[in-house]
C-alpha cells in the first residue's frame, strides 16, 4: 500500500495505537518491534479488541485483508506522520532542551489553547515514536501543534525535526543532561542546536531566551527571532518579582502569580508569555492561563504532608537541574531544611565527578539534613547519610524520619523517589 492510500485510510480511522492494552474502537494498530517484543504477534489481538486494521511487517502474520503489510512498521508510522503534518494546516511549534521541556510545553499549550484549537505532546512522548503519534493527533480543526522533542544522542533532534518540520522552535536551555550519549556538554549544545539549524535553513522563526549567551551565539543575526529579557523591539521585557515559594513575575504592568516552585521555572513562564504574545493572545488571558496551571507528575510539586512542606521534583534529574533545585530550596524561608537526593542517570564517565559536585554543593548550602541514595551518591566522599538502595533509605526513614519542616525530594526517574511520600 502506498503512503497516500494509507493516509486516506487513516483519515477514515484517525486514531493510532501501538499498544494492545490501549486499543480504541476503529483505530489503526501499528505493530512496532522492540528489543523484547514483536508487535506482529499481537496484531490479531488488536483486531479482536476493536482495531479496524493492523499494520504489520511480517507477511506470515497476515490472515485477512485487515492486515496491511509494509516493509517496516516504525518507518511507515514516521512517514505517515510527516505526510499528515503536511496535509493539515496547523502551525507547528517545536521545543527541546535539557531541562523544563515538559513544563514549558504545558504552559505554552495552556496559553495558546485559550484562543486557538491546539494539540500538544501527551506526557513526555517526545521520541522517535512519540513525535509521530503527536503529529497524527493533529486534526483538520487544529490551528497550532506544540511538539516536544527529547534526545540523548547526536542527530536525534535533527531527525525529529525532519518528521515534524516545525514553523517555530524554542530551546529551553543547554544543561548537563544525557552526557553519556551526547559526549559531554559541548555535545549537548551541538545536539540540541540541531533544532535551530533546521529552522535557520528553512527560514523559519525561533523563540529565544536572550539571557542565554550560548543561544545568542548559536543564532548569529540572520534569523527571525522573538524572545525575552532584552531591550529590543523583537524581545519582550519580563521581570521576575519573586520565586519563594512560587514564581511571581510581571509583564506590561501585569503581575502573574504562578503555582510553579523555583526561579528555574521563570524562563519557562517567559517562553509561554513570549509565544502567547506572538500569537496575539491577550495579556490578561496569558496571565489567567499561567496562573491556572498546576504542575503534576512529580515535577516541582509543592505539597504539605504530616508537618512537612515538600518540594517533590522526582520526575527527573541531571546536574544542571539538581543544582538549580538545591540553590532555590536553600533560599526558601523555612526554619529546617532537609533534602533527599537520588542518583542522576546517563552521565557516563562524568557520573562520579557530577555526583561529588552535587554532594559538595549540598554541604556548602548548609542544609540541616541531607540523605543521599543510589549507587553513585553512595560512592561520594561525603559525611551525609548514604544508602546504596532505596530499601535501605526506606528502613532509615521509618525509624528516623527527618525533622518536620521543608523537604526537597529530587532524583532521576529511575530512582522513583516519590515513594518517599508513602514512607513519610
UniProtKB/TrEMBL annotation:
Residues 299-377 form the Mur ligase C-terminal domain. InterPro entries: Mur-like_cat_sf, Mur_ligase_C, Mur_ligase_C_dom_sf, Mur_ligase_cen, Mur_ligase_N, MurCDEF_CellWall_CoF430Synth, MurE/MurF_N, UDP-N-AcMur_synth. ATP binds at residues 97-103. It is an enzyme of class 6 (ligase). Pathway: Cell wall biogenesis; peptidoglycan biosynthesis. Its main location: cytoplasm. GO terms for biological process: cell division; cell wall organization; peptidoglycan biosynthetic process; regulation of cell shape. It comes from the Bacteria. It catalyses: D-alanyl-D-alanine + UDP-N-acetyl-alpha-D-muramoyl-L-alanyl-gamma-D-glutamyl-meso-2,6-diaminopimelate + ATP = UDP-N-acetyl-alpha-D-muramoyl-L-alanyl-gamma-D-glutamyl-meso-2,6-diaminopimeloyl-D-alanyl-D-alanine + ADP + phosphate + H(+). It is found in: Cytoplasm. Residues 16-82 form the Mur ligase N-terminal catalytic domain. Residues 96-275 form the Mur ligase central domain. GO terms for molecular function: ATP binding; UDP-N-acetylmuramoyl-tripeptide-D-alanyl-D-alanine ligase activity; UDP-N-acetylmuramoylalanyl-D-glutamyl-2,6-diaminopimelate-D-alanyl-D-alanine ligase activity. Keywords: ATP-binding, Cell cycle, Cell division, Cell shape, Cell wall biogenesis/degradation, Cytoplasm, Ligase, Nucleotide-binding, Peptidoglycan synthesis. Its EC number is 6.3.2.10. GO terms for cellular component: cytoplasm. Belongs to the MurCDEF family. MurF subfamily. Involved in cell wall formation. Catalyzes the final step in the synthesis of UDP-N-acetylmuramoyl-pentapeptide, the precursor of murein. NCBIfam families: murF. This is UDP-N-acetylmuramoyl-tripeptide--D-alanyl-D-alanine ligase. It comes from Flagellimonas flava.
Amino acid at each position: 500500500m502506498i503512503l497516500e492510500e494509507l493516509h486516506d485510510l487513516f483519515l477514515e480511522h484517525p486514531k493510532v495505537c501501538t499498544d494492545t492494552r490501549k486499543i480504541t474502537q476503529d483505530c489503526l494498530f501499528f505493530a512496532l518491534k522492540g528489543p523484547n517484543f514483536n508487535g506482529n504477534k499481537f496484531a490479531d489481538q488488536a483486531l479482536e479488541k476493536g482495531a479496524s486494521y493492523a499494520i504489520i511487517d511480517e507477511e506470515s502474520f497476515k490472515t485477512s485483508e485487515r492486515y496491511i503489510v509494509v516493509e517496516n512498521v516504525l518507518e511507515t508510522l514516521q512517514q505517515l506522520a510527516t505526510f499528515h503534518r503536511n496535509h493539515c494546516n496547523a502551525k507547528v511549534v517545536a521545543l527541546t532542551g535539557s531541562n523544563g521541556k515538559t513544563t514549558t510545553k504545558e504552559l505554552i499549550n495552556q496559553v495558546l489553547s485559550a484562543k486557538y484549537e491546539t494539540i500538544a505532546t501527551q506526557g513526555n512522548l517526545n521520541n522517535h515514536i512519540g513525535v509521530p503519534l503527536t503529529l497524527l493527533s493533529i486534526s483538520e480543526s487544529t490551528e497550532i501543534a506544540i511538539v516536544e522533542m527529547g534526545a540523548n544522542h547526536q542527530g536525534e533532534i535533527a531527525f525529529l525535526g525532519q518528521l515534524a518540520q516545525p514553523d517555530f522552535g524554542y530551546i529551553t536551555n543547554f544543561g548537563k543532561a544525557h552526557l553519556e550519549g551526547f559526549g559531554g556538554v559541548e555535545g549537548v549544545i551541538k545536539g540540541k542546536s540541531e533544532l535551530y539549524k533546521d529552522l535557520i535553513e528553512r527560514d523559519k522563526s525561533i523563540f529565544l531566551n536572550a539571557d542565554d549567551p550560548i543561544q545568542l551565539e548559536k543564532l548569529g543575526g540572520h534569523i527571525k527571532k522573538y524572545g525575552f529579557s532584552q531591550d529590543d523591539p523583537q524581545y519582550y521585557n519580563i521581570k521576575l518579582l519573586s520565586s519563594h515559594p512560587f514564581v511571581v513575575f510581571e509583564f506590561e504592568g501585569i503581575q502573574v502569580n504562578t503555582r510553579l516552585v523555583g526561579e528555574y521555572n521563570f524562563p519557562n513562564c517567559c517562553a509561554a508569555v513570549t509565544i502567547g504574545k506572538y500569537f496575539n493572545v491577550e495579556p490578561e488571558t496569558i496571565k489567567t492561563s499561567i496562573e491556572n496551571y498546576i504542575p503534576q507528575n512529580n515535577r516541582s510539586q509543592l505539597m504539605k504532608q504530616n508537618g512537612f512542606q515538600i518540594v517533590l521534583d522526582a520526575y527527573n534529574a541531571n546536574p544542571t537541574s539538581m543544582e538549580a533545585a538545591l540553590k532555590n530550596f536553600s533560599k526558601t524561608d523555612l526554619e529546617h531544611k532537609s533534602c533527599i537526593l537520588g542518583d542522576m542517570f546517563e552521565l557516563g564517565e562524568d557520573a562520579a565527578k557530577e555526583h561529588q559536585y552535587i554532594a559538595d554543593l549540598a554541604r556548602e548550602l548548609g542544609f540541616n539534613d541531607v540523605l543521599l541514595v543510589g549507587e553513585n551518591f553512595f560512592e561520594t566522599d561525603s559525611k551525609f547519610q548514604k544508602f546504596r538502595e532505596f530499601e535501605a533509605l526506606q528502613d532509615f526513614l521509618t525509624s528516623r524520619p527527618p525533622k518536620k519542616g521543608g523537604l526537597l525530594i529530587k532524583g532521576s526517574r529511575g530512582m522513583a523517589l516519590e515513594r518517599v511520600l508513602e514512607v513519610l
